Amino acid sequence: MTTKRHQIVVQGITVEVVRKDIKNLHLGVYPPNGRVRVSVPSRLDDESVRLAVISRLGWIRKQQDKFEQQARQSQREMVTGESHYFQGHRYRLNVIYCKGPSSVSITKNSTLELRVRPGTKRDKREVILNRWYRQQLSEQIPELIAKWAPTVGVTVAEWRIKRMKTRWGTCNTKAKRIWLNLELAKKPDSCLEYIVVHEIVHLLERQHNERFREYMNRFMPQWHIYRDELKQVPLAHEHWIY
């Protein structure tokens, strides 16, 4: 598929225009700062795109206001007393310096206990916590894929986890491989399940078009609720452009 990108400015709003071999125009506003992107058929000229954006300006600004008001975590210093999230719940971090192997555990249903050797630097403490997040996700994902791949009627050949600044998940349709963002370990279980289903459905339809939405409505009718829930939970410090 041929794709061309450029930007136009509509009443002070920068709009990314992506021309593809598609039939209909699709407009979206994305976190964290309300970036506007519109995918359009290759034949559509900029003036037509401009008119389409103008017709949706009220909706665009409403979405941008929501992102502006959304909670955002500051840079984490990995010290005792900080708030950290796991499966949608907020925990108080307690860093304990001690001999022996490093570990992470939840205590008293309110504390995320991080045990590290004396002198462990901030970046290493973050690596240890992220390793724990990865392990927790790795235990959840296989069960979700085993549940949803047969329901959707596809085979997932491989799945992987990585930190991504632009997407919650991606899908390689040729390899039948899905990637899931490590940040999903911090989000509610319903959000993780929604993203897993979202990427599995991409094995049936690559684009975010009407056919894709019809599949999502069929397999997970409440997907809009989970998508909105994902938008409401605090964003990580990274500047997302998803």
TrEMBL record:
This is Metal-dependent hydrolase. Residues 27-232 form the YgjP-like metallopeptidase domain. Transmembrane segments: none annotated. The keyword Repeat does not apply. It comes from the Bacteria. Gene3D superfamilies: Metalloproteases ('zincins'), catalytic domain (3.30.2010.10). Keywords: Hydrolase. Pfam families: YgjP-like.
